[in-house]
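INTERNAL AUDIT FORM
Audit reference: QA-55
Scope: verify that the stored structure record matches its stored sequence.
Auditor: D.O.
Record contents follow.
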Amino acid sequence: MEIVVLDGYTLNPGDMSWDALKSLGNVTVYDRTDAAQTVGRIGDAAVVLTNKVIIGREVMAACKGLRYIGVLATGYNVVDVDAAHELGIIVTNIPAYSTASVAQMVFAHILNVTNSVAQYATEVAGKWTACTDFCYWNTPSVELAGKNMAIVGLGNIGKAVARIAQSFGMNVIAVTSKPQNELPDGVLSVTLDEAFAQADVLSLHCPLTATTRDMINAATLAKMKPSAIVINTGRGPLVNEQDMADALKNGVIAAYGTDVLTVEPARADNPLLLAPRCYITPHIAWASTEARHRLMNIAVENVRQFIAGEDVINKV
């Protein structure tokens, strides 16, 4: 069985092994593949794994031996699923592998904002050493207990964030399609407008759709408390980046912490790069060692099930 990995570097930059996948067939791993190389690199392979390399109808039509596309992520918008179904090609994804890691990153961003962790870590040498008091601070420190955590989207990650928020003593409200009687204990269902108005921290965990694109914009930011914090570990386009940058500059919102941008890697002209109180991490919430090992194990098991002729659990 010929197996091709089109962009394996982000999953495994060298600290993991492909041996489990290699036990299933003849494996070729490419660190990165651009659009012009995709068809040639797939060739006659029956199994292809991709993360961000797009596999559309034209690629599928040109690669006659292709029978299986495994997406090395939860989202599978890089694959033309309709075309795959028409051509009898199985598509799989990797659900719920990074829940704990992404939820952890949410609070890394929140605590960085509320406790100014990154700032003070760089000010010990100089400002603290020159201080006459035993302690030094020049920004307020905010206690999370009693604050309102608004979560937009209550899937696996949203629920994990809710649990952590409750452990901090926060009041958790959620914008979700689930009825109140199906929500975790202590989580109150609210409308989106209620979430904007009540949130001390607003965390985005909803899918990107035509409805949710730019859901955070000048109008919705104006509904929020000036002291509120927005956290985005979902999708970059959930937030209108120019509107967010303007809101930060004008004091409409207190801070924005994000692990995702509309265009990645970040463009030099992204307005958020120069916005005050904007904290950007480079799309790494998913990438803990533990989460990547889970991703690898699930990906290999998906391929094994396909080769064995079993019903593939994670089929899209």
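Auditor finding: record pair retrieved intact. The chain has two domains: 2-97+289-307, 99-280.
Action required: none
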